[in-house]
């Protein structure tokens, strides 16, 4: 009799758990899907997960435990192959877009505006490029195009970058003990961007290290849940942003005062900050201080984050593929050999001759996927590929899936720069900097910086990793777990 009662209550508990589980799984549909009425029938397949958290546990499990592609494959397994799926991520109902064609449509359609999580807009600033409307984004891009991506500006930046690259690599090579290449490369890339943006405004190592640390804290908070409580990454990141805003606002204020006084120093400065303070649109409107500070924050964040990681990964991948390394090295040697005797360093013309190195950079960005997705929001109901994306829902072009789609690339997870010589590769299948009107305006500067660093490394140095089998971590950004602990060795035959 007691055994029968135990079985009965066990069965009852299991039924109740099953009912509660089913109700919880339907809660988000009641909240977000039911109000859509007839549009429900044309929503992409998928599910919105549990109340409040949605599918965040599945997302974190996939990315934290070393198998990020399992997150999308779980949708494919349950709902079949589709160009998009519905879910709830980062606190909002979302449509994940998985194919190159559908991603291109989203990224080039003006019916989609910015859709970054609250943590991003709070941390990088509401007046910069991430959170503004498409119209304001276009205006800002036009204003900063020449200072950031114009050939004259890029040619000027080359000298800044190569001076720092030469000095830094020599310093690393002189050390007997190993360094964390990723950590040091991030610091160096930050120093480069500070030089480009602010000249020698802040040039002592202690201040630069402190600010770079603040940026690391800020970056870690970007992909965290927006919990503003002590101990959480988002809380620490907000404090870091406050510190950075205070520093940059003071510098902008100082520059304004020098400009009004017609100071000689203000007339001779030609860094990016000065150019941003001077530029104006067709109506004569200039950027205000808040816009300038937010732009400085995002330029420094993207400039040292993406470039530092990309250079590190390119060096790692090249040394893992000796034949590719040799081919890239020979191209750089040929460039130096063809150089006029009077030329003492790189110039823009030589950068454009680095055809194979650009393939190495593109392949590194494709394989590593420094950003797993981009963030947009539907400003109206939009029909794409037979599915409806409802107004107000977040849209996530999942660029990691595009870069690893075997329909776009043969053996997509292999590092093979020569694949870019294949004319069959479709335009729009490589989108590390986005696409459309919101394409990252600093893309050319980032690739220039990466090119200069790789040029000098390939000519003069080699990498000796301490833990070549170190596992890869994917949050908040793809990186070796040991941060590429290695020795940098100077080659016997090296070039200036």
Automatic annotation (TrEMBL):
Record-listed heme binding positions: 440
Any one of the GO CC terms: membrane
Keyword check for Transmembrane: yes
CDD domains with a match to the protein in the record: CYP90-like (cd11043)
Keywords assigned: Heme, Iron, Membrane, Metal-binding, Monooxygenase, Oxidoreductase, Transmembrane, Transmembrane helix
CC cofactor: heme
Molecular-function GO terms, alphabetical: ent-kaurenoic acid monooxygenase activity; heme binding; iron ion binding
PROSITE patterns documented for this protein: CYTOCHROME_P450
InterPro entries named among the record's database cross-references: Cyt_P450, Cyt_P450_CS, Cyt_P450_E_grp-I, Cyt_P450_sf
An example Gene Ontology biological process: brassinosteroid biosynthetic process
Keyword rRNA-binding: no
SUPFAM superfamilies cross-referenced by the UniProt entry: Cytochrome P450
Coiled-coil regions, chain positions: none
Localisation per UniProt entry: Membrane
Recorded topology in the membrane: Single-pass membrane protein
Family that this chain belongs to: Belongs to the cytochrome P450 family.
Protein name: Ent-kaurenoic acid oxidase 2-like
Species of the source: Coffea arabica
Gene: LOC113706525
């Amino acid at each position: 009799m007691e055994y029968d009662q135990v079985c009965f209550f066990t069965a009852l508990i299991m039924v109740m758990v099953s009912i509660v589980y089913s109700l919880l799984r339907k809660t988000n549909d009641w909240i977000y899907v039911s109000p859509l009425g007839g549009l429900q029938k044309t929503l992409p397949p998928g599910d919105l997960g549990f109340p409040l958290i949605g599918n965040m546990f599945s997302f974190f499990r996939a990315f934290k435990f070393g198998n990020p592609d399992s997150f999308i494959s779980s949708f494919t397994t349950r709902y079949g192959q589709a160009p998009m799926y519905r879910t709830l991520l980062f606190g909002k109902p979302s449509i994940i877009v998985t194919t190159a064609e559908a991603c291109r449509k989203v990224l080039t359609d003006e019916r989609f505006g910015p859709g970054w999580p609250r943590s991003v807009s709070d941390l990088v600033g509401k007046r910069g490029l991430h959170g503004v409307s498409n119209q304001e984004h276009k205006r800002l891009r036009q204003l900063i195009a020449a200072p950031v991506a114009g050939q004259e500006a890029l040619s000027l930046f080359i000298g800044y970058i190569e001076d720092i690259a030469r000095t830094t690599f020599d310093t690393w090579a002189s050390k007997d003990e190993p360094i964390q290449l990723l950590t040091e490369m991030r610091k160096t890339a930050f120093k480069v961007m500070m030089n480009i943006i602010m000249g020698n405004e802040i040039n002592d190592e202690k201040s630069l290290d402190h600010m770079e640390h603040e940026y690391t804290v800020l970056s870690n908070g970007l992909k965290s849940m927006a919990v503003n409580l002590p101990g959480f990454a988002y809380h620490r990141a907000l404090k870091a942003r406050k510190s950075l805003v205070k520093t940059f606002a003071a510098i902008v204020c100082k520059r304004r005062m020098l400009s009004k006084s017609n100071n000689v120093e203000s007339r001779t400065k030609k860094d990016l900050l000065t150019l941003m303070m001077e530029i104006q649109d067709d109506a004569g409107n200039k950027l205000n201080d808040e816009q300038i500070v937010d732009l400085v924050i995002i330029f420094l964040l993207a400039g040292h984050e993406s470039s530092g990681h990309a250079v590190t990964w390119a060096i790692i991948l090249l040394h893992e593929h000796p034949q590719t390394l040799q081919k890239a090295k020979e191209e750089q040697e040929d460039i130096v050999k063809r150089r006029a005797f009077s030329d003492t360093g790189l110039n823009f013309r030589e950068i454009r001759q680095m055809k194979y190195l650009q393939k190495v950079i593109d392949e590194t960005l494709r394989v590593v996927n420094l950003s797993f997705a981009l963030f947009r929001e539907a400003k109206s109901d939009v029909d794409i590929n037979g599915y409806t994306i409802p107004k107000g829902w977040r849209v996530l072009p999942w660029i990691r899936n595009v870069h690893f789609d075997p329909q776009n690339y043969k053996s997509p997870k292999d590092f093979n720069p020569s694949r870019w010589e294949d004319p069959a590769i479709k335009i729009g299948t490589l989108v590390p900097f986005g696409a459309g009107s919101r394409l990252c305006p600093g893309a050319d500067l980032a690739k220039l910086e990466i090119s200069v660093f790789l040029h000098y490394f390939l000519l003069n140095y080699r990498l000796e990793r301490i833990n070549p089998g170190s596992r890869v971590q994917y949050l908040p950004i793809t990186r070796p777990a040991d941060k590429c602990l290695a020795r940098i060795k100077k080659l016997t035959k090296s070039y200036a």
